[in-house]
Specification:
Blueprint (H helix, E strand, L loop, with lengths): L7 H28 L10 H55 L6 H22 L20 E4 L2 E4 L7 E5 L2 E4 L4 H6 L1 E2 L5 E5 L8 E7 L2 H4 L4 E7 L2 E6 L4 E6 L5 E4 L2 E6 L7 E6 L2 E2 L1 H13 L5 H61 L3 H27 L7
Antiparallel strand pairs: 1-2, 3-4, 5-14, 6-13, 7-12, 8-9, 8-13, 9-10, 11-12
Helix pairs in contact: 1-8, 2-3, 2-7, 3-6, 6-7
Organism: Luteimonas composti
Keywords: Bacterial flagellum, Cell projection, Cilium, Flagellum, Secreted
Main location: other
């Protein structure tokens, strides 16, 4: 018959170990309740801790994307306002150009209109240099800290670049924060945006180009054509290589068509005069207004000079109208980006809610369950303490 012997020291050690285990369980449950998290140490649940850290990172990214969206939304709204103001200035310039095209105006009247056009140009330059309210220029591209536009003796130069900042506003969602000034104010289509007609500067007759346009895009082929007057009542159309495409007789107000293009000319062109029509080139809006003001201030004592001025004004009216359409197109693009930001805001909100719920399921404590568990653990701890006291009181002398 074997006898299990256990020393008093072993009994004490075993009891103490059990007591400490119960105390650790109580302490952990209490810490869970105080911190409201079950993931106190990575060793307790390595996979859960890694998952929670991933969710925390995703939530931090959403918060940064939210800040980005707020900043770019403010910048785009400020740009939209600037584009609206630029459009208003161009509308005023177009009204002034139409007003200046009246034959009843005196030289003083036109000089006054030219002065107002220069004021419009200055205001447009101020809009081009406008800030976004956060210390950055709206139209400097990606170059911060520079004033994008400068007027040097009537010639506007650009110190910005063509770059655009791409901003993350949501999970896999990006938006451009603005348009560079080179696209907004410098590279602006002229004419009707497709073609531009013009009278040669050296014309000696009083022919005036009234309109020009494309009648057949397939037949045109984007080539430049020129109408040459071989006599006061005879014209021919040649292409860039000098090849004659059409010829005909001229009467004031007649429409000349060839190669998918047409021009309407009034007045009496002189032999050797010419009118060109070409794919609409780009030009900065400041030069358009500068050239128009210069044309209004130039003397026009003869029919030839008056026809030259009328041609310049007519071309400027078309250029300004196309510039207005250009600003409207840019505003439409800004509106599309603002709409994308609103959509991204909804996506971020839904994603944030999903991540928060997942993180809560993973990390948050079920208070009722934890409180019940704590009560059981306290009971067990109390029992362990009583048992430990009983063991400590045992002695052989109690049997004597």
């Amino acid at each position: 018959m074997s006898v299990l012997r256990m020393s008093t020291a072993a009994l004490h050690a075993q009891g103490l170990q059990g007591l400490m285990q119960q105390q650790q369980k109580v302490a952990r449950t209490q810490q869970e309740l105080v911190s409201n998290t079950r993931l106190l140490r990575a060793a307790d649940n390595p996979a859960g801790m890694a998952r929670a850290q991933g969710l925390d990172h995703a939530l931090a990214s959403l918060q940064q994307q939210d800040r980005n969206a707020s900043l770019v939304q403010h910048r785009l709204r400020t740009q939209e306002s600037a584009l609206a103001d630029a459009g208003s200035q161009l509308d005023r310039a177009r009204q002034l150009a139409l007003q200046a095209n009246s034959g009843s105006l005196s030289a003083e009247d036109r000089a006054s209109i030219a002065a107002e056009l220069r004021a419009v140009r200055s205001e447009l330059l101020a809009i081009a240099n406008r800030e976004d309210g956060n210390g950055r220029r709206l139209f400097s591209g990606t170059r911060d800290g520079v004033i994008p536009f400068a007027d040097n003796a009537g010639v506007v130069t650009y110190a910005g670049d063509d770059g655009r900042n791409t901003i993350e506003i949501g999970p896999d969602q990006w938006v451009l924060d603005g348009d560079p000034g080179s696209e907004v104010f410098l590279r602006v289509r002229t004419g009707d945006g497709i073609v531009r007609g013009s009278a040669a500067a050296g014309n000696t007759g009083n022919g005036v180009l009234q309109s020009s346009g494309v009648t057949d895009h397939a037949a045109w082929g984007r080539q430049a054509l020129q109408v040459e007057f071989t006599a006061a009542d005879t014209w021919r159309v040649v292409d860039g290589a000098g090849t004659q495409l059409a010829t005909g007789t001229y009467a004031t107000g007649a429409t000349i068509s060839a190669g998918g293009l047409q021009l309407t000319i009034t007045g009496t062109p002189a032999p050797g005069d010419s009118f060109a029509i070409e794919p609409a080139p780009t030009r900065d809006v400041f030069s358009t207004l500068q050239n128009l003001a210069d044309a209004l201030e130039a003397p026009a004592a003869s029919d030839v000079e008056r026809a030259r001025r009328e041609n310049l004004i007519g071309a400027a009216v078309g250029d300004i109208a196309t510039a207005q359409d250009h600003m409207l197109g840019l505003r439409s693009g800004v509106g599309t980006r603002l709409s994308a930001i609103d959509t991204a805001d909804d996506v971020r909100g839904a994603t944030d809610l999903t991540l928060q719920e997942s993180l809560s399921d993973l990390r948050d404590v079920d208070v009722a369950e934890a409180a019940s568990r704590l009560a059981l653990q306290l009971t067990a701890l109390e029992a362990a303490q009583k048992t430990m006291l009983r063991v400590q009181g045992l002695s052989l002398f109690d049997r004597l």
